[in-house]
Amino acid sequence: MAKSFKQLTEREIVALAISLEEEDGRILGDFAQGLRDSYPATANLLEEMREEENGHRASLIELYQARFGDHIPLIRRGDVKGFVARPPVWLAANIGPKAVRKTVEAMETETRHFYLTAMRHATHAPTRKLLGDLAEAEAKHSAAAELMEKEQLTPDVRVKEDEASKRIFLLQYVQPGLVGLMDGSVSTLAPLFAAAFATHNSWDAFLVGLAASVGAGISMAFAEALSDDGLLTGRGSPIVRGTVTGIMTTAGGIGHTLPFLISDFRVATGIAIAVVGIELGVISWIRQHYMNTPLLRAALQVVLSGILVFMAGILIGNS
User: Fold this and answer.
1) How far apart (Å, rounded) are the C-alpha atoms in residues 163 and 170?
2) Is 263:195 a contact under the CB 8 Å cutoff?
3) Which of 1, 88, 122, 167 is the most buried (most CB within 10 A)?
4) Residue of higher predicted confidence among 211 and 284
């Protein structure tokens, strides 16, 4: 059962402070390790901050040993009421430098508040002085981090980090999503319109389109997830990529399937064809905006493939 802060003795307060500094140092180290490859400047900043936390911890241990002996009880933040729970760093996949900086700032604010409260609670003069010094150090930490950020994260470095963020976003989300959207929008055209023109029945066409969309989504999700584990390619979690691909594949097929919920076959077909045109235009724009493919070339490639599949479906349905 967690204790309130007022129930802690000075011995327990110092032991808790040691635990907090150790935890903060490990979190900073984990963040630095996670950002090392893609964001080396931010990782260096975090390493410097970790060294400061280690210095704070050493000062606290020295004080504790002088007052209470060598045995330091394990008192963690979860044992004391009032602390904000922190999610494990190792669960935060693909966290970026901006999110890390915000998290670190929140950590420093909370730690400073703890030291200020602990200082008011302490009666032993050296302990009170150390806690006050650490509170002041935490207050300066944000300013020091800002200064180090200006020194280390130069405009050139920021550009490189932004480019790295964009590259990771492209590899892990845009590229799998685009592959799925293209496959869903194009591959489902043939079975959908073949069923539509073979039966001239909107509901039958809808069922075929729905089955084709969901089936293609499941197939593409597994194909993408099993293509690689992302360790060497930097494409991130296979589960995330597979999920993105599967959802976008299904969405690409569902878009031009939904119009066949309209009972009038001709109206439904006309709307479905218009939706196909919109889908192909969106795909062309995404390729131009994110993949740096010239818009005309992207449009020609996508539209040509869409027309060919669409015509195949019509020919098969009318045969």
Assistant:
1) 10
2) no
3) 122
4) 211
Query: What token pair was written down for 80?
Result: 């004391």
Helix segments in 39-122, DSSP class H: 40-68, 97-121
Q: How far apart are CA 293 and CA 137, in angstroms?
A: 51
Distances (CA, A) of 87 to 22, 63, 84, 102, 314: 16, 30, 10, 14, 54
| Residue 185 to residue 165: CA distance in whole angstroms | 28
Q: Give the model's pLDDT for residue 167.
A: 63
Contact call for residues 188 and 212 (beta carbons, < 8 A): yes
Closest CA to 262 of 208, 313, 211, 201: 201
Please state whether the predicted TM-score (pTM) of the whole model is above 0.90: no
Structure tokens that stand for 29 in this block: 């180290």
d(CA 187, CA 310): 9
Helix/strand/coil for 3: strand
- Tens-digit pLDDT profile for residues 50-94: 888 899 899 999 999 999 999 999 988 888 876 766 666 655 556
Q: Which residues contact 14 (CB under 8 A, 6 or more apart)?
A: 60, 63, 64, 67, 68, 127
